[in-house]
Amino acid sequence: MQMAKAILVPFLVAVFLALITVRPMLFMQQRRVPAIVAALVIVSAIMLILSVVGTIVGQSIAEFTAAIPTYQARLDTIVAGALNFAVEHLNADESIRDLRSIVNPGFAMGLVATLLNGLRSVLTNVFLIFFTMVFILLEASTVKTKFEASFGSSAASFERPSAFLINLGRYLGIKTLVSFATGFLAWLLTWSIGLDFPLLWGMLAFLLNYVPTIGSIIAAVPAILLALVQLGPGEALGVLIGFAAINVLFGNFLEPRLMGYGVGISPLVVFVGLIFWGWVFGPVGMLLSVPLTMTLKLALENDEDTRWIAIFLGSERDAQYELESRQADS
Hints:
Elements: H1 5-30, H2 35-89, H3 107-123, H4 126-140, H5 143-151, H6 155-192, H7 198-208, H8 214-230, H9 233-259, H10 267-281, H11 283-301, H12 307-313, H13 316-329
């Protein structure tokens, strides 16, 4: 798969975008808009949004990447000062100074630059993404007819694949809306305190919100470090509290209520998926790791023979709900 990464990654991005937009596509068809027209309108709108956002954020990425050595030097100075203070005023062991060679606070900033540059390089393959999306959306409008022709016209023949596609589209749609709100609040927070590159931190929060738990931490750390370097410890603490509040609001309260049950993933599965898909497909694989894993989970959940695997992949909350449902039925 790594050898085919140059083709597979843009293809997966196109599939991801198509799954988000398939419901608007079907809605337009119900209003008697021809399939080809609906597909072209939706895909053109997505490409326009990506182009505008990519141009604006791309400039911030370039400026941020160029400024990383300066931020790295300031962070090294802050770390060295903190270690010296601990030795001289807090009676810490002299060997604690050696931590300076181990601790690398600038790593998080470098990771951000690598992640966003990787995504930007994938989005440059705009023609492959465009045409793949068009063909997927056109095919989506014919799936039901093909299933009926293959397996019969009964409603039961299409029930499982239909439920799978509906659940997956619903999950990705809600996740995208929540991610957009998260990114907007992250931009508003960093812009309001005067932090450099607020659009970058908003985009990062939007993208990494697709990765539960771990993503919010990865998105917050570089912004907090930059606030420490640029503005001071008080503002860095404010950014920390702000990101924590945003994460608690959406991750612990709003999103679970919108999603309902059956769409949670075990933190261990999230972590393993992040490593595996990141290794296979690079930075974009890390961003798509949870949607890819969720696709697998929902597919397994729609078959009674593999449902137990989906339960193990899911969260404790979902397992508890499954247990209570079985007890209620018995």
